[in-house]
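seq:
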Amino acid sequence: MPKASGLFLFLLLMTINLFDDACWASLRPLTFTRPVADLRIGILTIAEKWAKYLNADFGFNTQDYLSIKYAPKLNAKLFINGAVCPDHELLAAVSGLQIGEVLSSGSDVIAYACNESLTYEQAKQQLRPIDYKQNFLKIIYPENIFTHNPAEIRKDFELLTKGRISAKISSTNQLLGDDIFFEEGAKAECSVLNSGYGPIYVGKNAEIWEGSLIRGSFALCENSSVKMGAKIYSGTTIGPNSRAGGEINNSVIWGNSAKGHDGYLGNSVLGEWCNIGADTNNSNLKNNYAEVKLYDYENKAMRNTNLQFCGLVMADHAKSGINTMFNTGSIVGVSANIFGGGLPPNHIPDFSWGGADGFEHYKLNKMFETTAKVFARKNRLLEDTEKQILTKVFELTAPHRNF
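struct:
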């Protein structure tokens, strides 16, 4: 197989594909509707991080049913594990790969360079191994997202703002620390922004309303808003086209979602197109201070996270009514709709409708009716590709709906 120098390969590569490995399964329900590399951690998604570092366009090697929306780039020669977050040391190793080489660490395939797409198992067997000996971050379980979010905000902040000057910030705000960056069109008035504990990034046309108290590290992405009087603590990311209010701590909202009212969200991850009703709260600490368990889709059983603080994991299109109370370590599946009094169970299956008093199937046609209305609010159409993906998820998750 012909070889090229790593530098030559790096300069030639304008496209990359990010592949799913076994972590796609362990990251469910968040990954039922997307490749692993489309998960947001820090300010950017994992795919966006790699594209920014490498100055490259990207595609995905993912599950067949997701490929209608997340397609691969056919001319890519560099393939990167979508669960691995880049850093400068890892970037040097990946960009140094020659055609026919695979970068691995133990059983993990980090990246490989090849003239054709291979599975990660094939890459391990067929390509010349390069052993990576440094530490690196791989997202394996949903709770890894909020656990590592503070550090990833710092890395993404440096990546996005290096050599740039922030847009002007209104003098009505109280600014503490020097690591505050506003993109063009971003606004804030009469709020306290404290970057003494980590950077604060406010994306293009995002807005922080009056009276908000924000402690970094914090990211508010493009076209999103923080409502009046919000209290937001370190390690929180609000993705694009979203709304945030109340009290939020060390949580990640992927995007196109709303937690706009009072109520607590802590040590949690919310997917896309979610809506949290007013005064919804989640517990992130057990009364006995024991380690928190989360539902595992592979084993259909609870898995110990080894974390004392672990809140809510909510997949795409899920919603809660007003005054919903979520137990410590709750998993809410795709398109689940929760309402009513009392504490619902720790695992709420995908396409469930109900609450503490019991659940029934959330019929697919009814779910599509609601989703079309949600999309219309953001001037989007519910296209056939979305319906096909959600129909497949509905089928895949049927064994978890035991009611």
